[in-house]
Amino acid sequence: MLVTVSGPPGAGKSTTVTALAEAFDLEHVSGGDIFRALADERGMTAVEFNKLAEEDDQIDRDLDKRLRSIALERDDVLLESRLAGWLAGDAADFRLWLDAPLSVRAARIADREDKSPERALEETREREESEALRYREYYNIDITDLSIYDIALNTARWSAEDVPDILTAAVGAYDPSTDEGKYPVEGVTYDF
Questions:
Q1: What is the DSSP string of 121-145?
Q2: Do residues 3 and 164 make contact, with C-beta atoms less than 8 angstroms apart?
Q3: What is the per-residue pLDDT across 27-46, written as a single tens digit (0 to 9) for each?
Q4: Which of these, 81, 78, 88, lies nearest to 34 by C-alpha position?
Q5: Which element (helix H / strand E) includes 84?
Q6: In this structure, are residues 67 and 48 in contact, taking their beta carbons and an 8 Å threshold?
Q7: Is the pLDDT score of 50 beyond 90?
Q8: What percent of the chain has pLDDT over 90?
Q9: SS3 call for 27
């Protein structure tokens, strides 16, 4: 089974995917972890590395190519990244989108990264705008188009413990005999 979990920074992906991966005995592969490790290798913060990625498109393309290869070549994986659902495409059994209001996500990021909520809000907004432009330019992906996702969940409405339970229940209740079809992933140019 291949499950993708996508969403903007601070949506609760990292908190949720650990429980989901355990529930379904899936290997967890995090695009964010890979990106942050690459930034750290260069002695940069994720924000600084994101700015560099605006100038050097090979950074995004290499990461995305790696994630797409994992999605197409491996089984029993939970793939987590902003573009995981798009990169896995029709190979994904379930595509999940987690989100929360920007103010909530910025507060979570501020707490996690020990910075002011105002700074986190500004950096998050800049990062999202930068990434959205690059996704459209590189792959013709409109990150705001949630039509490909099986479930889109506002994580601000439930506790961090309840969100994985909700998603685990939904995936666990899946019955292939009643499946009338998932949304296809169309119009994407995987230009790596």
A1: HHHHHHHHHHHHHHHHHHH---TT-
A2: no
A3: 999 998 888 888 898 899 98
A4: 81
A5: helix 84-88
A6: no
A7: no
A8: 83
A9: strand
